[in-house]
Amino acid sequence: MMEDGIPFEEVLSELEAFKSRDLSYKRILSSMCTDPHPIARIAHKLFLETNLGDPGLFPGAKAMEDEAISMIADLLGDSSATGYITTGGTESNIQAIRAFRNASKNERGNIIVPHSAHFSFDKIGDLLSLEVRKARLDSSLRVDPAEVEGLIDDKTIGLVGIAGTTEYGKIDRIEDLARIALEHDLFLHVDAAFGGFVIPFLDSHPPFDLSVEGVSSITIDPHKMGMSTIPAGGLLFKDERLLDSLSTPTPYLTSKRQFSLTGTRSGAATASTYAVMKYLGFGGFKRIVDRCISMTRNIMNVAASFGIKTPVAPDMNVLTLEIENLQEVIKALEQSGWKVSVTREGFMRLVIMPHLTEPIIDEFLYDLKDATGN
Ligand SMILES: Cc1ncc(COP(=O)(O)O)c(C=O)c1O
Questions:
Q1: pTM confidence score
Q2: Atom of ligand 1 nearest to the CA of 162
Q3: Mean pLDDT value of segment 210-233
Q4: Ligand 1: nearest atom to the Cα of 165
């Protein structure tokens, strides 16, 4: 740091220079985040200085968080579920498994996750000294329930199912996993970080949420398809005792105990979560999801018309394409400003988020056709 500061305007222009190096979302087809909704930006600014880690000082922000959780609980099939707004899917997953560990008889045991699970579960294994057993997927890239059952032993704490996998957007058979969890007296966490704000708005979908008997907790991220600002995640427990198992005494704060992983936590992203849900309502979210699904189908159909196959049928707005000379094609697309990603199996992965529009998709398809020489 310099001894003397520099003028306000100069600081701002330095910030603008940094920002100008960032990409705009316009041609990004690789991210599960998106441009926040305009009302999310305003809400975020309004609550910038609030600290939900010391809620007695910010009772309004706390009441808003409780209402946001209650709206999410309602959306995810159990209006009496409890939880809090986290910093994202990673914190929600950590806290869910930590609660299972705290509430379980097995102190140092294992959890069973699908092979498709997000890498946050590897962090969890490390943080909580748990073995993370990965169950194989079936040919539809959903976890195979028989594989999960076969990995259970007397040290198992809980199971995880994914509702919207990161790479392929697939929805595991949560009802089958719940049946296994109940039979073996295990907790079951559903990671719907991406799918939580998609699946409820699809025209039809399999049961995946807290309405399924045997599901103990669920992750849902407002900062992904919830169109909120970063960092906003959601964690909900069906049974309040699981949330209680995360309780830490906080002697010198305005509240007696804290459940969150972070101490100081901004109310800003919570405000944006609340504002978007209130403003859009179910109908508004449905229109956004419908548009993303329709753009996904359009890419799939047009790509097929020039010979590009979809290796895995999409369950939602995550699409994979089988492309020869993938790295060269990606290089050509990048020259036109497109950002796409690649799955571990070597397929092009596209996430069709709300910031994309039909004309942008048409431009992408034109460039894809050109890059693949079709
Ligand atoms: C299914 C799933 N779970 C968890 C996460 C982690 O979320 P975050 O990056 O918000 O911590 C992701 C991120 O893409 C995800 O797709």
A1: 0.97
A2: 1
A3: 98
A4: 1
